[in-house]
Write a structure and sequence with these properties.
By secondary structure, the protein is of the alpha/beta class. The protein contains 9 helices and 13 strands.
Length: 337
């Protein structure tokens, strides 16, 4: 037993040492100045206070989100994708409203969704989850928020959204592209978890960035004005570590990092003057995720045209290829007179 305990301690020490070396290597590669980031955070706070004094003093008590702006050297060649990053500290303010999308207990548009709301409310009370303010069944989304203006009203009513993992794949097209533009797509959680409170707190620590190939600038929330500056600093460092690993092209493809609020100017805390030719174009090209069945299907068409092959592409394109048979050439012989 002693040997096993000593071996486990040695492995833990090795893991800690390896993690420390990884962070040091990563920090050397990233090359960020904590002092510069703290000065940038203080500058953004000062700009917000100056704007509040110029406009209205009543807005001083409101909590404003803080965003990090990522500018790339080369535009990533990839389809639209949500990049989720786990932060050390949650970006949810104490006064923020959180909504939870859940499955229906009974399917059907004409079914009453009040028993579903009551069921999940009792489940949250059982696990002592007080962070969720509203429970919205998927039946209510289909019936009450089926138009664009109603979805827009739903988006403005809450600050953060969570969703049951069993229906997470259906929510993106039900909520629409306006949720994607505002970076408010719901974060999935496991409602069957034994520790549901930890599951919800873990999901609220995540932030998302919408990556696309239509421009070189991407935006994500990394904190709010009610947080301590050191907590915002740790969130920024965690985001930079994740960007160096999973951003298209890695850290070599990042031109500048800036900090801003919803109304203030963007203050830079990192900038480089690299040449575009130093970034490999193959590294910024990300192939879309496809299922295993995403392939061309070929077969013979015998009902409409003979000797024809049909090719159906995954996106629905149909191509007909007709095979022509070579006719034997006739020999021309001269008639004897």
């Amino acid at each position: 037993m002693k040997r096993k305990n000593s071996e486990s301690q040695v492995t833990r020490k090795r893991k800690r040492a390896s993690s420390e070396t990884e962070t040091t290597e990563l920090s050397e590669k990233v090359n960020l100045s904590k002092k510069q980031i703290l000065q940038c955070i203080s500058g953004v706070f000062h700009l917000i206070q100056e704007q509040i004094k110029e406009t209205n003093s009543l807005l001083a008590e409101e909590v404003q989100p803080l965003f990090m702006q990522v500018t790339s050297i080369k535009v990533p060649q990839m389809p639209r994708r949500q990049m989720r990053i786990l932060l050390p500290y949650s970006i949810v303010a104490p006064d923020d409203e959180v909504a939870l999308f859940v499955c229906d207990l009974q399917r059907g548009r004409r079914k009453d969704y009040e028993p579903t709301v009551e069921h999940y409310r009792n489940l949250l009370q059982k696990h002592e989850c007080t962070r969720v303010n509203e429970i919205i069944p998927i039946n209510r989304v289909k019936t009450e928020f089926d138009q664009f203006e109603l979805k827009k009203k739903l988006l403005g009513s809450y600050d953060h959204f969570l969703v049951d993992g069993r229906i997470a794949g259906h929510m993106s097209h039900l909520l629409g592209k306006y949720f994607t533009k505002k970076r408010k797509l719901p974060t999935s959680i496991r409602m069957q978890s034994k520790d549901l409170k930890h599951e919800i707190d873990y999901a609220l620590r995540k932030t998302s960035m919408h990556i696309h190939s239509h421009g070189d600038t991407h935006l994500m929330q990394i904190g709010n004005t009610s947080m301590d500056k050191k907590k915002i600093l740790k969130n920024i460092l965690a985001v930079c570590e994740e960007l160096s690993k999973n951003y298209p092209g890695g850290w070599d493809n990042i031109r500048a990092l800036r900090l801003k609020s919803t109304t203030s100017l963007a203050l830079p805390f990192y900038m480089t003057l690299k040449d575009k030719n130093t970034v490999d174009s193959h590294e910024i090209a990300v192939q879309p995720k496809r299922p295993k069945a995403y392939r061309d299907v070929e077969g013979e068409l015998s009902t409409f045209i003979r000797d024809t092959t049909v090719t159906v592409k995954p996106e629905g394109t149909v191509i007909l290829t007709k095979h022509t048979k070579e006719r034997p050439s006739k020999k021309v012989t001269k008639k004897e007179k």
